[in-house]
Amino acid sequence: MKSSLLSADNIERLSEVLRPVSDEQDANAAVTLLLKPKSRDSDTLFVKRVEKPDDPWSGQTAFPGGKRESKDIDLKQTAIRETMEETSINLLFRCNFLGVMTTFRSESKPEMKVLPFIVLLEHEPQIKLNKKELESFVWVSLAEIFRSKNSVTLSFGEFPAYLLRNIVVWRLTYRILNNFIQTLETLEAATHKFSKDI
Predict the structure, then answer these.
(1) Short-list 87, 166, 155, 164, CA closest to 119
(2) Which residues contact 39 (CB under 8 A, 6 or more apart)?
(3) How many separate domains does the chain show?
(4) What is the pLDDT of residues 100-155, one digit of tens each?
(5) Contacts of 176 (CB under 8 A, 6+ apart)
(6) Range of the structural domain that residue 38 is part of
(7) What phi and psi values does residue 113 have, to the nearest 5 degrees?
(8) Tell me, what CATH number does 114's domain have?
(9) Parallel, antiparallel, or unpaired for β 134-141 and 149-154?
């Protein structure tokens, strides 16, 4: 992975390969993959859910998000509301919605269809976690994510995962993150081919 792909300029080019924000794809939940640009790289926000017996994602590392409520006009509003409720980050303030990915169906709750929104932050947000839902958060650079693809062995099997410092990204969040990484790789390949053809 070339570091130039991780620059703010190239991250913004994602809007050319992502689906439009209005493409809801019959989803009923939304998560937000936040990108915070820095010198020739970008950080991504991960949150760790508190452990709850009634939560199928109890204790897991995830992206901010949740299920659409009847008051939400659309899934973009779901992403905005959930991100605000969980992290206090206001996506209506100095944020650029680059687009959405394809819908992902939850393995734990197949009736839940999750639409990931890719959002570029244009400021340094102040995060205040909703301690009823989230235990902690961490920013991880895309460069580190690219290097961390691995697997995790649990008592009930081995699963593909991203091993980031002291956190494990697996299952639904892994699938979303892995698809996003593949999108970046496709973008890099297209950029590289274009530069060679000139």
Answers:
(1) 87
(2) none
(3) 1
(4) 999 999 988 899 999 999 999 999 999 999 999 999 999 999 999 999 999 999 88
(5) 31, 33, 63, 101, 104, 114, 116
(6) 3-197
(7) -115, 115
(8) 3.90.79.10
(9) unpaired
